[in-house]
Every structure is written in C-alpha cells, then in structure tokens.
Amino acid sequence: EVQLVESGGGLVQPGGSLRLSCATSGFTFSTSAMSWVRQAPGKEVEWVSGISRNNYKYYADFVRGRFTIDRDNPKNTLYLQLNSLRTEDTAMYYCVKSSSPTRPDGERGAGTRVTVSS
Asked: Residue 58: which of 94, 91, 22, 33 has the closest Cα?
C-alpha cells in the first residue's frame, strides 16, 4: 500500500521559511517522480514543484527562486524548502506520487498546513 505522510507545516510570518517533508512507503521511491501540490482555501489544487527520479527539478513560476524541492532516496523522503514566504502561499501542501515531475496524477498524502500571516 502506497503511503505518503507530510509534515513540517505551521504558522510563519511573511518572509519566513519552512521545510516540508514527505515520508513515503509502499513503492520504490527512488524510481518514482514526485511532486508537491497545494490548495488554498476556496481555490483549486495547483502544482507547485516536481522532481524526476534522476533529480531534475521543476517549479511553478510563482515559487521559482523561493522554493526548493529535494529527495533523499535512502530515506524514501521528499522535501520542499519554502523561503521568502508570502501570505498567498497559505495553503494545504500535499506530496504526490507522480508519473512525471509536472504531472501529479498518483496517490497523495493527507497534507500539511502552511499559514503565512503576521
């Protein structure tokens, strides 16, 4: 059974940073593309970032230069470093097992909430 468990969210002031983690199990993490998506209150899910099994990284324009995606294959864990956070980054963040880094079409976790507020 595929399992993805996100953690690391919280309340942070504008300009602050957070590091999200996604612990995975039940599939061969090292050979899978992975993505992060987010959903703000009252809005649709939007793709944030993705990483290939060969460590190629992709970002949505609205996070490029501020967020960094990484993976640790021995630990079966996906990360998203969030820097220079803005109020509009407030959302539930989900990691997604993906068929490609920009196609978050597989299983996803329960999410971790990020709130950016002063």
From this structure: 33
